[in-house]
Amino acid sequence: GDFSGQLLAYLSLGPIFIIVGFVTLIIFKRELHTISFLGGLMFNEGVNWLIKNVIREPRPCEEAHSTVTTKYGMPSSHSQFMWFFSVYSFLFLYLRMHQTNNARFLDLLWRHVLSICLVTVALLVSYSRVYLLYHTWSQVLYGGVAGSIMAIAWFAFTQEILTPLFPRIAAWPISEFFLIRDTSLIPNILWFEYTVTRAEARNRQRKLGTKLQ
């Protein structure tokens, strides 16, 4: 009968939904930066597992959750995952996905709104782990700090090390076979895909109209 607990339990499934979303996006878009983002999330999970097994701090109520995959709770993997995702997305929105001209009001507005939503979800998922007695406040806090630091480091690594290599990787025969692409030089991929698709649709419509005459 605890509606808040049920809602927070569903929110704590956020990492699973994000992973499924990434896999779906990679299958349909096959973009190198998206693949790198998912790789960073997986690396972040590996670091979390390593830290947990070094510190070995138990969960606050081990007997209450017999189905958890590990008995260690420092740092919270959910908190670290969500803050990695949120901070990396924030950096991507403001440092990578920029306009070449002066940003319009609506363009900035949706970025601010999306950033607020990302932080809100990360806070709620982190809080859910304490509310549901999976972690202590310190475990959640350190998870958030670790995830944020990992996100900044991975973003810098992607921008400075991986991005210059993307054109070369995209030109590999195996990349061409799987239609893997590099969109690093396109400032706003959403706007680019929209304008290109709209122009192509209008061009095909004109050709179709000419044939019908």
Question: Which key features would you list for this structure?
Answer:
9 helices, mainly alpha, PAP2/HPO_sf, single chain, 213 residues
Descriptive report:
The protein has 213 residues and is mainly alpha-helical. Helix content is 73%, strand content 0%. It is built from nine helices and no strands. Helix 1 (3-11) packs across helix 5 (105-131), helix 3 (32-55) packs antiparallel against helix 4 and helix 4 (77-96) runs parallel beside helix 6 (137-162). The longest helix has 27 residues, at 105-131. The radius of gyration is 21 Å and the shape is elongated.
What order do the helices and strands come in, and which of them pair?
Layout: H1 3-11, H2 14-29, H3 32-55, H4 77-96, H5 105-131, H6 137-162, H7 166-170, H8 173-177, H9 189-212
Helix pairs in contact: 1-5, 3-4, 3-6, 4-5, 4-6, 5-6
Summarize, please.
With 213 residues, this protein is mainly alpha-helical. It has helices at 3-11, 14-29, 32-55, 77-96, 105-131, 137-162, 166-170, 173-177, 189-212.
Shape: elongated
Q: Looking at the chains present, what oligomeric state does this protein adopt?
A: single chain
Secondary-structure element string:
HHHHHHHHH
* Helix coverage percent: over 70%
